[in-house]
Amino acid sequence: MDTSQGSTRRVSGFKPTGHLQLGNLLAAIRPMVAGQYAVRTLAFIADQHALTVAHDPTALAALTREVAAILLAAGLDPVRSVLFVQSHVPAHTGAHYLLESTATYGEARRMIQFRDKADGQETVRLSLLTYPVLMAADILLYAGAGHDVEVPVGADQGQHLELVRTVARRFNTRYGETFALPRGLQPGSGARIMDLSDPRRKMEKTNPVTAGVVFVLDPPDVVRRKVMRAVTDADNTVAYDAAARPGVSNLLDILGCVRGCPATELAREYSTYARLKADVADAVIAVLEPLQRDFAGIHADPAELDRVLAAGGEQAARLAGPTLAAARQRIGLLPGRVGEL
Question: Is the pTM of this model over 0.70?
Answer without folding.
Answer: yes
